[in-house]
Structures are given as C-alpha cells and as structure tokens.
Design goal:
The complex is a heterodimer of chains A (265) and B (66). In chain A, 37% of the residues lie in helices and 16% in strands. Chain A contains ten helices and ten strands. In chain A, strands 3-10-9 form a three-stranded parallel β-sheet. Chain A has a three-stranded parallel β-sheet with strand order 6-7-8. In chain A, helix 3 links the parallel strand 4 and strand 5. In chain A, helix 4 crosses helix 5 and helix 6 runs parallel beside helix 7. The mean pLDDT of chain A is 94. With 66 residues, chain B is mainly β. The model of chain B has no long low-confidence stretch (mean pLDDT 95). Chain B contains one helix and five strands. Chain B has a five-stranded mixed β-sheet, with no helix packed on it. The radius of gyration of chain B is 12 Å and the shape is globular. Classes of the chains: A alpha/beta (265), B mainly beta (66). Chains A and B meet through strand 4 and helix 4 of A and strand 3 and strand 5 of B.
Chain lengths: 265, 66
C-alpha cells in the first residue's frame, strides 16, 4: 500500500470530497485568473460572496459563476461582510435562492472591520437559526475550543477556526489551541483564514485538520496560479505526513548510519 | 410608484411584477436572487409577484470572495 492509498475522502454534511484544499474567489485580477488559480489548486469546494447586482451596468458582463461553474465545483457561499446574525441569515437565504436550493454555506459573522475577528455571540445565534432552517453550516470562528464545541453542539457541519486574522498571512498563531479543538471535535475541523504560504497549510494538515480554506495566500501571491499548485501539494504532503505519523522528537542525536564496522574500529 | 432598489430610490411605471423589473434591468436569465421586504421571492414566483409602493427590493448575485 502506498502512502496515497492511506487517505480516504473526507465528508461534510453528507457530501464526499477528495481535495482538502478549499479556496476563495476574491482579490484576483480578473475572472480568467480566478478560474486558472481555482483549477490549479485542485479544490472541489469554492467560496464566493453575495452582493447587490450592479444595476445599469453591462448585463452581459461575465459572471463569477460562469468562470467557476456550479456544475464543476461545490459552491460555498459565504456571509463575509455581515456583522449581525440577522444579516448573515438573510445572506444565506439569498445564496440558497441563488443556487436553486443548495444549502451548504460558510457562516462568518464579523466583529469589526479592522480585525475581521469573528463575533462569536452573533455567530452562535446565526448558526442556531440556520441549522434549524435546514442549512448545512461550515462556520468560521475564533480559536476558542469552547466556542468551537458549542458550534458543533448546535449542529454545524464543520468548524473552521482562524489560523490568524483574515488576509494577514501570519499562518497558525495558536497551534496549541487548534490542537485542543481537533482533539475534542467530532465534525471536520478546517483552518480558515490566516494562511500565508505553503508551510502554513502543511502544518495545519500535519496537525490533523480535515482541510484548509484560503483565499489571499493564493490571490495575493505574485504568481497566484503557481501558488495554487504549491498549496495543493502542501495540503497533500501535510495530510500524508499526518497519516504517516511523524517520528518522535529527541533531545539528542541518533545516528542514521550503523555504528558497527567503522574503519576506525 | 416608487420602490427602494438595492438601497436606492427608483421610479417604476404601473405596477410591474418582479419578472418585469428583472427584464427592465436587463437581468432576465441571469443567475440572481431577489428579496422583497427582507423575504426571499423564489424564482418560480417572480412572474406572479407584483411590486407595491415603498417595497424594499434587493437583487443580488455571486461575486468573488473568500
């Protein structure tokens, strides 16, 4: 059995996926670059935002869903920009209508526009309402293990703590807390936000995360399509390293070459 | 009559349905969702739903985001 055969598809809300990299579609130069980066990432789940249609502009302008089609990808509408449970719930309902009843959503309720840190009080309120309304909720949250567990108890399908602030590229700033969340969780845990480069993504996977969701790390790299490929490999490498179970750390050296039969013996 | 469309006042002739409004906006056949007074109006009901004075209408679509 090779390493690759060790991994199994992962499951969220009754849907199976092979790729453990989830990507956003914001901040790209244009839709061509978006489509190329998403394809290079190998992602199967792709997030997008819901916004007012620009009225009076060219109605034939290309649409995001032409570049990233619902036939090819599992689309994950987000509630980015919502600061209250009420706005987030409204946005999810609009997204469900937009996607003909598709009920998988990424819930995020933000606290302020400087940190975009989650407002967990409003997040818990929105999660409860959405689950009762039949949504499958993948929820962006803080790295607080108690809040993560509460969200799971409310019926969220996946819990997605931040690695660091959205768009900051600082990587995983609190791996100890992430470890506690992973140990306690019975739903998939994905790191959402804060990834800066491939090693950040690999580390999250080595720790046992089900997946990683990122946008800026790819879109704001100088060469987004190249970074998308790097992230795909990092996610796979990190996952395989997790499954392979790393060697223990030692305080002192241990020779790899035999200590017998040396010509100096 | 006047409605609020995506946060801005808009004058409409007669009492159009949501389908009429969507067509006027050049958005027929586009992938959009419509909310009137904070309630979703499913696509299947656009033709049967008439707008009334003061309605707050939101027309949204998908856009790049993370």
């Amino acid at each position: 059995m090779t390493d690759r055969h060790l991994d199994q598809p992962w499951c969220v809300a009754g849907r199976e996926f092979t790729s453990r990299l989830l990507v956003g579609t914001g901040k790209y130069r244009d839709l061509d670059e978006t489509a190329a980066a998403v394809a290079a990432s190998g992602a199967e789940i792709v997030t997008f935002a819901v916004r007012r249609t620009n009225l009076g502009q060219n109605a034939d302008a290309p649409n995001l869903l032409d570049a990233v089609s619902p036939e090819r990808y599992t689309l994950l509408p987000n509630t980015a920009g919502c600061y209250t449970a009420r706005d987030a719930v409204r946005t999810c309902k609009l997204a469900r209508e937009l996607l003909d009843g598709h009920n998988l959503v990424k819930l995020e309720v933000l606290g302020d526009d400087k940190t975009l840190y989650p407002n967990v009080v409003e997040t818990l309120k929105a999660a409860d309402e959405l689950v009762r309304d039949g949504f499958d909720v993948m929820v962006y949250t803080s790295d607080d293990p108690i809040v993560a567990k509460e969200l799971e108890t409310l019926g969220c399908s996946a819990v997605m703590p931040l690695g660091s602030l959205i768009g900051s590229g600082h990587g995983l700033l609190n791996p100890a807390s992430l470890r506690v969340i992973l140990e306690n969780a019975e739903v998939p845990v994905l790191v959402d936000a804060g990834i800066g480069t491939a090693s950040d993504a690999a580390l999250a996977m080595e720790m046992g995360c089900a997946g990683v969701l990122m946008n800026s790390a790819i879109a704001h790299a100088r060469h987004p399509v190249v970074m998308a490929g790097a992230m795909r490999k990092a996610i796979e490498a990190g996952r395989e390293a997790f499954l392979a179970e790393r060697m223990p750390r030692r305080a002192y050296a241990e020779a790899s070459s035999p200590t017998q039969g040396r010509i100096t013996d | 009559m006047q409605i609020q469309l995506n946060g801005e006042r808009r004058d409409l002739d007669g009492q159009p349905t949501i389908s009429d409004l969507v067509t006027t906006l050049g958005l027929a056949g586009r992938r959009i969702a419509v909310e009137v007074n904070e309630e979703i109006v499913p696509r299947s009901q656009h033709a049967a739903t008439r707008l009334t004075e003061g309605d707050r209408v939101e027309v949204v679509h998908a856009i790049g985001g993370g």
